[in-house]
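wait is this the right file?? whatever heres the structure
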């Protein structure tokens, strides 16, 4: 059984590599592998070099980073909140990060260098607020969803307020508000990759704590784990991963909801397997969604956030009915 899970994980990463290569040939200008290999060997075609290595490749790598971040964030939030419907979007993390980011983008665009930090603070504050509203002699799964809806509504209103007040600048932030990888460059990859590496590496160190929390509070305490401290650390890492991803590409919903469910179906509940598999699967899902968005509309590109909302919304309703929350 363990060998089968390892095979699944290895296969998912091999598939991811194949998709990055394959999707680099697809777009408004379709290219063949021979043309790309020829450019690698000879380096004499400026058009192919620009399309593949300056536009599509950094975009695909950014999709990998964002997908992995959001998937692991969702996995951890579901473990901490004991709620299969928890994800960065529903728990307010994405909206909180968005408020911080939109203030920087519209009010103080000169300070975009600190955007990930501001987004992290905003996401953390929103998540803490949902925690407080949902806490009543312990975390109540249905209260988390309701609190998340309330917090998201409030934060959405704040975003709309700033969008109205700074309507002359909103056009520059529209792609970000819709969650888009369009126009992203190697500079954006460099911005996110450091945060992602740190957050994902720390997440591997928290696997044991996440597994123990699944046993229940009483069992975790008997095993010598400070459950409140463990929840806080895991939540901070989840917020950090989701907020920094949101700061770079904008609001992308449902990756953190869909991927952990599929990962648990195939890998079980042991985070030793679900975490690395979720990373790969989250990257695959977002990479496929972004490629679909930039090819399905012809000359008109559909933001990846819109694609994920269309796909993820019905999935959320299905889970809501199935779990009876």
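ok assuming it is, sequence goes like this
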């Amino acid at each position: 059984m363990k060998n089968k899970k390892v095979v699944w994980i290895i296969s998912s990463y091999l598939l991811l590599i194949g998709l990055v290569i394959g999707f680099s040939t697809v777009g408004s200008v379709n290219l063949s592998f021979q043309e790309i290999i020829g450019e690698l060997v000879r380096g004499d075609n400026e058009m192919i070099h620009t399309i593949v290595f300056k536009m599509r490749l950094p975009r695909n790598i950014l999709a990998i980073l964002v997908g992995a971040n959001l998937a692991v964030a969702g996995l951890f939030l579901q473990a901490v909140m004991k709620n299969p419907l928890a994800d960065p979007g529903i728990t307010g993390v994405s909206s909180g990060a968005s408020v911080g980011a939109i203030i920087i983008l519209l009010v103080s665009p000169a300070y975009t260098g600190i955007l990930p930090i501001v987004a992290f603070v905003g996401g953390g504050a929103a998540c803490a607020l949902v925690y407080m509203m949902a806490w009543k002699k312990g975390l109540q799964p249905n209260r988390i969803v309701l609190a998340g809806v309330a917090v998201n509504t409030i934060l959405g209103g704040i975003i709309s307020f700033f969008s109205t007040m700074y309507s002359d600048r909103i056009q520059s932030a529209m792609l970000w508000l819709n969650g888009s990888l369009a126009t992203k460059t190697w500079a954006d990859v460099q911005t996110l990759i450091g945060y992602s590496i740190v957050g994902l590496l720390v997440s591997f160190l928290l696997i044991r704590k996440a597994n123990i929390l699944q046993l229940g509070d009483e069992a975790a305490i008997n095993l010598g784990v400070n459950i409140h401290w463990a929840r806080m650390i895991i939540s901070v890492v989840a917020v950090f991963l989701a907020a920094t991803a949101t700061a770079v590409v904008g609001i992308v919903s449902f990756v953190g909801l869909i991927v952990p469910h599929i990962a648990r179906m195939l890998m079980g509940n042991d985070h030793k397997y679900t975490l690395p598999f979720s990373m790969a699967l989250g990257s695959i899902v977002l990479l496929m969604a972004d490629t679909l968005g930039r090819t399905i509309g012809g000359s008109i590109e559909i933001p990846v956030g819109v694609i994920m909302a269309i796909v993820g919304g019905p999935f959320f309703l299905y889970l809501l009915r199935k779990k009876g929350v």
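The mean pLDDT is 86. so i think its the right one actually
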